[in-house]
Specification:
The protein is α/β, with parallel strands linked by helices. The N and C termini lie far apart (60 Å). Helices cover 49% and strands 11% of the residues. The chain has 14 helices and 6 strands.
Length: 368
Amino acid sequence: MERLTRAELQARNRARVLTAARDEFTERGFRDAKVDAIADRAGLTRGAVYSNFPGKRALYFSVLADLAEREAELDGMRRSSPASGETHDAEAMGAATAREALGAFARAWVSRLPLATDGPARLGMDLMPEVLADQRIRQPFAQLMKLNAIVLGLALERLDGHAHARWVRVAETALTTLHGASQMADAAPGFVEPFDIVTACAALADLDLGDRWDPPHLPFVPRARPAREPWSPPLAVDAVRGEPVPLARDGVVAVLGLHRLEAVEEAVRAMPPGGEVTAVLVTGDVGELGPLARLTLADLRACLRQVLPAPAWPRLRVVHDDEGAVAAAAGVTAVSDGTEAAVLVRSGRVVARADGYGACHAAASAEL
């Protein structure tokens, strides 16, 4: 039998731990699950578990992220595969108006709600309690929710057809409603009427929340520094679309820590028509916050792919950069959850860069 390399052995052990942890969390719940029991299920030592995951919560987030990404991928494959002569991709089935999109998004969301709290449905019940238990988790989670609202809001704006309308606050309200429905489905099975949630979310399109975009105050925004550097980005995948990211195109690449994600909207709003914006997510805690970010974006992706026609996808892509490869290509070699840096790419070269608070706006609005 061919001997496995160290990397192959580590990947195999990691997969065994994830499978064992999923079974343990499903049967016992997060609180009562034991790392020793997970190690026994995997046929590994306790040390082998901790060599792959820094702690039980990191392992829990990783299990949920892995399942969410698999579900999103399988759903994408089902929708892109013709059956009985029909086309099931988002381009053919997408909503035509913001109201339709909100209703369809909510329908996709509630279709995934557990009908009971036994068995596999129990697996995700401890996610929110774990987020609430630690401020170090709450702040990144809040920013991840903000990023989801920005992505959804930008899509609604493109369907709305009004160039100056901002729909991010409507998206925030819809996500708040849907997350609340998820919590009630866990806490009080049978209480939530799914069709009421869908109707309520669709009706949000008719609300005037006074939403508008105010550009950053110019005196406090740093200026982008002119540059003339080669741009050789690594291959990357868009966490929202589930497809390769065209990083070589003209546009802004924003390297953002998980405390600064909402800053990407500044780049999107300041970017001239036709330019791409890519948010590169980095963190100082890859083991625990990395899978939380993957989980959050995968949940959004699973619903959006059932809703958006191709023209409505926003000019924003999102990349998980746990290894720091894209950040390094952009010249950002040291990252943390407070990182905000951006480069402007034109014709295959970095022509401007900015760092610190306001970097996204500065790079997108650079006049060269």
